[in-house]
């Protein structure tokens, strides 16, 4: 039986994995998914091909990992808020969503998917299945929990989750795909979140 890896070796492995994901994202964006080989990614990441292949045996597996990592909260706050205070819960989710959408690399990920969609529709499927939908489902489950707690009245939690996240992303994220210098200040972003919360409370609060 092999011994468990030490904390040092775990840290080194995590650092190499992060370097691989960063290098792959940049190469996919600069050169295209099809023209980027795993060998080029290994070279750009400063790791051996054996190290890369051990973690990511295929390019599709590597892209899946990029998607999953990009959509993780990554700050230890990904737990769904407890139901009971709709305004506070939505405000917390809204601020987390802003932090997620404005993380380095998120815009690049969407640009890769959009650029490669005609030839590699599986990239968009991965983005939807492994990234967006798990996050969306967490918001839907929160709204269902609030409904069970009696704080809201709604028939379609999926529609309500779409409305709330859409009010935020339509200002914070989507313009970034077209406008290179789109960077609203913190006060403007906070106002968008606050207004989205107020809209949801006005529409659905019991």
Summarize the structure.
The chain has 206 residues and is mostly helical. The chain has helices at residues 7-31, 38-45, 49-55, 59-70, 86-101, 106-116, 121-149, 157-172, 186-204.
Notes on the protein architecture:
Helix 5 packs across helix 8. The protein starts with 6 loop residues before the first helix and ends with a helix. The protein is mainly alpha-helical and about 210 residues long. It has helices spanning about 5-30, 40-45, 50-55, 60-70, 85-100, 105-115, 120-150, 155-170, 185-205. About 70% of the residues lie in helices and about 0% in strands. The protein is elongated, with a radius of gyration of 20 Å.
Shape: elongated
Radius of gyration: 20 Å
Estimate nothing, just give the exact number of structural domains. 2
Terminal residue distance: 58 Å
CATH architecture label of the largest domain: Orthogonal Bundle
CATH class of the largest domain: Mainly Alpha
Name the beta content range: under 5%
Q: How does the major sheet shape up?
A: none
CATH topology of the largest domain: Tetracycline Repressor, domain 2
InterPro entries: Homeodomain-like_sf, HTH-type_TetR-like_transc_reg, HTH_TetR, Tet_transcr_reg_TetR-rel_C_sf, TetR_C_Proteobacteria
Keywords: DNA-binding
Protein name: TetR/AcrR family transcriptional regulator
Organism: Streptomyces durocortorensis
């Amino acid at each position: 039986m092999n011994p468990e890896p030490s904390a040092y070796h775990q840290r080194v492995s995590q650092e190499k994995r992060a370097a691989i994901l960063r290098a792959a994202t940049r190469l996919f964006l600069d050169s295209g998914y099809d023209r980027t080989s795993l060998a080029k990614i290994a070279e750009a990441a400063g790791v051996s091909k054996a190290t890369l292949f051990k973690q990511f045996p295929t390019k599709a597996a590597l892209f899946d990992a990029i998607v999953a990592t990009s959509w993780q909260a990554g700050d230890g706050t990904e737990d769904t808020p407890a139901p009971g205070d709709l305004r506070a819960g939505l405000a917390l989710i809204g601020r987390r969503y802003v932090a997620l959408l404005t993380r380095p690399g998120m815009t690049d990920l969407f640009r890769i998917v959009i650029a490669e969609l005609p030839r590699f529709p599986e990239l968009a499927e991965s983005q939807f299945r492994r990234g967006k939908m798990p996050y969306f489902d967490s918001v839907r489950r929160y709204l269902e929990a609030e409904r069970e707690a009696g704080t809201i009245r709604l028939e379609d939690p999926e529609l309500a989750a779409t409305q709330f996240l859409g009010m935020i992303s339509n200002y914070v994220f989507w313009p970034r795909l077209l406008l290179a210098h789109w960077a609203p200040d913190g006060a403007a972003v906070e106002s968008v979140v606050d207004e989205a919360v107020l809209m949801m409370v006005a529409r659905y609060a019991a």
